[in-house]
Amino acid sequence: METREPDWRQPGEPERRSGFNRIGLLVVLSLVLVALVAVKWERLAGKELSSRSRVSDIKLSILPGLPELTILKGSLYPAHDPWKGYLASDQACPGGERTDLPLNEQANVMTCLINYARQRRGLSSLTPASLLNDTSLKKAGKIVRCNEFAHGACGDDPAADVRAANYYGSWGENLYLGEGRLGAPRVALDGWLNSSEHRENLFNPSWRFEGIAVMTAARVGRYSNATIWVNQFGTD
Predict the structure, then answer these.
(1) Using one digit for the tens of pLDDT, what is the confidence trace for 144-164?
(2) Which end of the chain is more exposed for a tag (fewer CB within 10 A), N or C?
(3) Which residues of the chain have pLDDT under 50?
């Protein structure tokens, strides 16, 4: 039930309408809304890395149902990022911070970024393998289909797809989920670099091949405008 406060005036004073009161009310309402803006934080969860370690964009919606306005751009990278030197420049790997490129182009950018980081570490580049590209794409599809950001999405064994494809060599996998511009390839790689378990996978000297898949979804769990990255590694 909606209740409204009556207009306040002195007894016997004629009712007066003032545009100033309306403006003042709008100013107060706007200040309250700004105060209620939530800052999104990113969270690291095991080897399934979601983009919750940095402050994301601060958004404001004036009224329910209206589009949100970005009033402050958040940082794409941690402050004093110790792995910044392992991130290829846009000259070396163009498009690293773009999320508007076709997904196959973003996957190519990620391949460039990963090999740059490995070379910077003194390791050999990885060769793309069609089998691992296919199984990476299947894993991304499971995450979206079952709405579950996990290596064992849909209740399957994490290695089910590669074993079904008759691959029995050593195998590894990194996952990443980012909202909005935090799903860009360079930002995803930086998230892996800043996580010890993911970094160990990236810099494993025994890997010779890799697969990359990227997929977008309107929502995965509590994440909206989501980009899912799957990076699989193999020795054979």
Answers:
(1) 999 999 999 999 999 999 999
(2) N
(3) 1-18, 20, 31-47, 52-62, 68-72
Count of C-beta atoms within a 10 Å radius of residue 70: 11
Q: How far apart are the first and last CA of the chain?
A: 67
Give the global pTM: 0.72
22 phi and psi angles, rounded to 5 deg:
-65, -45
Q: Phi, psi at residue 29, to the nearest 5°?
A: -60, -45
Residue 83: both structure tokens together: 């792995």
Nearest to 139 by CA among 154, 119, 122, 118: 154
Q: Which residues of 178-206 are buried (b: 16+ CB within 10 A; e: fewer)?
A: bbbbbbbbbbbbbbbbbbeebbebbbeee
- What does the pLDDT read at residue 209? 97
Q: Which of 182, 216, 222 is nearest to 78 (CA)?
A: 182
**Could you tell me which residues come within 8 angstroms of residue 125 by beta carbon, excluding any fewer than 6 positions away?**
115, 118, 119
Torsion angle (degrees, nearest 10) of CA 28, 32, 34, 39: 170
Distance CA 218, CA 234 (A): 31
Question: What CA–CA distance (Å, rounded) separates 226 from 87?
Answer: 22
Place of tokens 């999405």: 153
